[in-house]
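Researcher: Sequence recovery benchmark, item below. Answer with residues only.
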């Protein structure tokens, strides 16, 4: 989502956006409705301590059978590799 009063800017978020663009992934920063969120193929969030955290359930809705998606794993690996190479 785009930055707002409920979403703070962060180093990890910026890193993920930059890594995505370097990997030729499209990056969209926009508000997302709850209906669109729960119908997503994958959901994850970022933090400075855990980098990329998969989200497999929103309220009582299980996302993609509760499995961590390939894109989530890919970004976790990209961020981890980047940090290890520092």
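Model:
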């Amino acid at each position: 989502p785009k930055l707002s009063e409920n979403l703070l800017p962060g180093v990890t978020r910026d890193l993920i956006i930059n890594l995505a663009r370097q990997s030729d992934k499209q990056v969209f920063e926009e508000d997302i409705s709850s209906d669109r969120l729960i119908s997503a193929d994958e959901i994850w969030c970022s933090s400075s301590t855990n980098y990329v955290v998969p989200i497999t359930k929103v309220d009582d809705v299980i996302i993609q059978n509760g499995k961590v998606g390939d894109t989530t794993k890919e970004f976790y690996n990209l961020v981890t590799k980047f940090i290890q190479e520092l």
